Amino acid sequence: MKDRRIFLKSMAFTAGAAFTSPDLYSKTIFTPDLDISCQYYTWFVYFKREGKSWLKNANESFKAYSESGLKGYEPTINNPGEVATLKKNLDKFNLWSNSMYVNSVLHEPQLVEKNISDILAIAEEAKKIGIEILVTNPSPIKWGGPENKSDEQIKAQAIALNLLGKELKSIGIKLAYHNHDPEMRESAREFHHMLTGTDPENVHLCLDAHWIYRGSGNSQVALFDIIELYADRIVELHIRQSHDGTWSEVFDEGDINYKRLADMLKKKNLKPNLVLEQAVEEGTPNTMSAVEAIGKSLKNVKKVFGEL
User: Fold this and answer.
1) CB 178: neighbour CB atoms within 10 A?
2) Could you tell me the maximum CA-CA distance found in the chain, to the nearest angstrom?
3) Residue 145 maps to a domain
4) Whole-angstrom Cα distance, residue 256 to residue 240?
């Protein structure tokens, strides 16, 4: 890894190019027996609500995780050393991971080479424990801020994202692009260019249904249009529900028609990695424990996506 050199100038495409790949439907990640995992962030916010810190006590944290009925776990990994600790906890509690979330900064050219090298170092270790998908959401200019990236920054980010995906593909890991609401601003120009400006063989899509819904002004029209446009890129689905725009305590019927979403995936013969990411925010009801809320959410997800 120390000898791996990354040069953006080696890219054999330009930032504005669009790519097509007619056979990607046959290359999606399949989930036999409806294996469902859950994102680190879910437990972080539910534990925080209870006055606890997720993973401060690993035994307490993963004991609760197992009690909810979950078997799969999508961690957020910050450095290669965390992978060994993750493996110990997975083995101890009979859990599995086939995907992980890794932060990235790809719109600043002076940071890209080191950032990609750091991510690849994590990926090399993660591959050893069965990770198949690396999810990343290129960082905004400032988390929670109103600033939007310039066209030049967006084009540079797409080049870097494609390069990262190409490097990950070479070691057998799929890169899945993820977004929050900032990427949906200004006609979703950042979101769309991360897909139209990259090669489908290198950059796939982690469809975070609720962030797309919220980022487009609570629009199911926008969400389902995006699914139609980029269905062949979807390798993972993040699942969260809300009621009247506020995240619900339990995943159930709500603002987003997940039954329609599941039917669309089925008709297109897509079986993406399913990751529960139910969460709490200001205004979310507080009537049950993390174990109970997430356990009920898991059961409801299985009902909705059972036919996959």
Assistant:
1) 18
2) 55
3) yes
4) 9
- Pairwise CA distance, residues 170 & 140, whole Å: 27
Q: Is 170 exposed, middle or buried (0-12, 13-18, 19+ CB in 10 A)?
A: exposed
Closest CA to 62 of 32, 44, 89: 89
CA distances from 285 to 75, 169, 246, 251 (A): 26, 42, 10, 12
Please give the model's pTM, rounded to 2 decimal places.
Answer: 0.89
Instruction: Output phi, psi for 87, to 5 deg.
Output: -60, -40
**Bridge partners of residue 246, in order along the sequence:** 243
Query: What order of strands is seen across the sheet that includes strand 133-136?
Result: 72-74, 36-39, 273-276, 234-239, 203-208, 174-177, 133-136, 99-101
Instruction: Output phi, psi for 242, to 5 deg.
Output: -140, 165
**Distance between CA atoms of residues 208 and 127, nearest Å:** 23
Task: List the beta strands (DSSP E) in 154-307.
Answer: 174-177, 203-208, 234-239, 242-243, 246-247, 273-276
Amino acid present at 299: K
Checking if the pLDDT of 5 tops 80, the result is no
How confident is the model at residue 143, as a pLDDT? Answer: 78
Locate tokens 């990950």: which residue?
168
Which residues are CB-neighbours of 244 under 8 A, at least 6 positions away?
Answer: 255
- Give the integer Cα–Cα distance in Å for 88 and 86: 5
In three-state secondary structure terms, 237 is: strand
**Residue pLDDT, tens place only, 173-224:** 999 999 999 999 999 999 999 999 999 999 999 999 999 999 999 999 999 9
Q: Which CA distances in Å does 145 have to 62, 88, 148, 149, 260?
A: 34, 37, 9, 11, 33
Domain containing residue 232: 32-305
Amino acid symbol at 126: A
The CATH number for 78's domain is: 3.20.20.150
**9 within some domain:** no
> 4 in a domain, yes or no?
no
